[in-house]
Amino acid sequence: MRRNIVHPGADELIYEIRQIVSLGKSLEKMGVPITWENIGDPIQKGEKVAPWIKEIVTDLIQDDQSWAYTATQGYESTRDYLALKVNERGGTKITPDDILFFNGLGDAVAKIFAFMKREARILGPSPAYSTYSSAEAAHSGYEHLTYELKPENGWMPDMQEIENKIKYNDSIAGILLINPDNPTGAVFDKEILSQFVKICEKYDCILICDETYAHVNFSGNGSIHLSEVIGDKACGMALRSISKELPWPGSRCGWIEVFNRKKDHFFDRYIKSLIDAKMLEVCSTTLPQMAIPRIYSSPELLPHFQMRNDKFKKRAEMAMQILKEVPGISVVEPRGGFFLTVVFDEGVLRDKMKLEITNVQAKNFIETLLQNSSRDRRFILYLMASTGICVVPLSSFCSAKDGFRITLLEENPDVFEKTYQTLARSIRNYLKSI
User: Fold this and answer.
1) Distances in whole angstroms, Cα of residue 110 to Cα of each of 13, 107, 241
2) Which of 129, 143, 156, 313 is nearest to 212 (CA)?
């Protein structure tokens, strides 16, 4: 072409969680049955949508308004409802105008970075969720900036590290956290969140908190929302969704709650740019927005949340019971979300390690992919070809640690236990293969 039309951040758009599916599909065609543990879709793993939720949505389909455009920022009565719920928690107050709907949080994240000045950087956690790390890196044209979550400290951050990075890099305009965290399953309590807020106040940065898993929390301490701690000085955004809580991932329905917008001229203008960008699309999907007040005001909701949290907690405990005796790895018990992260001890992985693959075609296929693979990706390739278990390497989450993420989503208890037992056995065999 006469002009290079490629964005300078194009090479940063990496989403291994989905990209690994193509390898799994190829192995399936070769006769390897795949157990999909790569993505957080409860429906695909067998969870049934609660009948009372289906009834609400079925009733709404009969309403012609659910087939129409809605307001650009979101269905007005839903924004009224959500603002009221935020204000009932105590803490920072918002209005319906501080809420903006998107077609899923993937859409929100894309716009959050697309309309941010390129020189403004957002400091995010490592391990990092790929949607954020790719979007931030692509927006800037440089590698994603991170602070480390430490498995030896329950995946908690070093707040001094965060402050130092912001203090000595004035391009950092904000901090991102995910609570509960993906991929680690860590839950940040009120004290940790307050420390994030203090740093943002001190260095005049925004705080972005992804609360996708806010009610998938089995820590025993309940959900703490950004609105409860951000106060009246720091500017911030909470990102919410119905994808994981209900669950309804196919709804592609997410929203942001904006705090202290008028405290800073640049932040106010930035939020206006997000609304203007949404206006160019007209609006986000109407039906799921209309469902939110009915679902979230139902007396069935809290028991529904409790039932789901109980089952995820039991699965996390079972997984820990199976993995805790496996040498060469460390595992922190998840306290929220759908995921468990396994970290290989430093130095235990070697380039020549392998697992036996009985399917010759699968063996030949996988071994062509090993060149230049990270050590943890080498393990997951062997794992997938030999056992059919598809997980995601930790190195694809902007982490210098070797490991992988696996889900807690399998609804069949026998399959769940078999998957983790097979995984534990495979780790032992892999580490003994040299």
Assistant:
1) 11, 5, 15
2) 129
pTM comes to 0.92
CB atoms within 10 A of CB 328: 14
Domain ranges of the chain: 10-47+305-431, 51-296
Residue 85 is classified by DSSP as H
Quick one: tokens of 194? 């307050």
Q: Which DSSP string do the residues of 239-250 spell out, in sequence order?
A: EEESTTTTT-GG
CA neighbor of 43 nearest in space, from 315, 290, 298, 243: 243
Q: Which residue has the tokens 């965290």?
A: 181
The structural architecture, per CATH, of the domain 10-47+305-431 is Alpha-Beta Complex (3.90)
Q: Beta-carbon neighbour count of residue 44 at 10 Å?
A: 12
CA 385 to chain centre: 26
Residue-wise pLDDT for 133-145, tens only, equals 888 888 888 888 9
Per-residue exposure over 142-174, b if at least 16 CB sit within 10 Å of its own CB, e if not: eebbbbbbbbeeebbbeeeebbebbeeeeebbb
Q: How far is the C-alpha of 231 from the C-alpha of 226, rounded, in Å?
A: 9
Q: Which residues pair with 326 in a beta bridge?
A: none
pLDDT tens-digit readout, 84-95 = 999 999 999 999
121 bridge partner residues: 172
Contacts of 273 (CB under 8 A, 6+ apart): 115
Write out the E strands in 205-291: 206-210, 236-241, 254-259
- Of the candidate CATH numbers 2.60.40.420, 1.10.357.10, 3.40.640.10, 1.10.1200.10, the domain formed by 51-296 belongs to 3.40.640.10
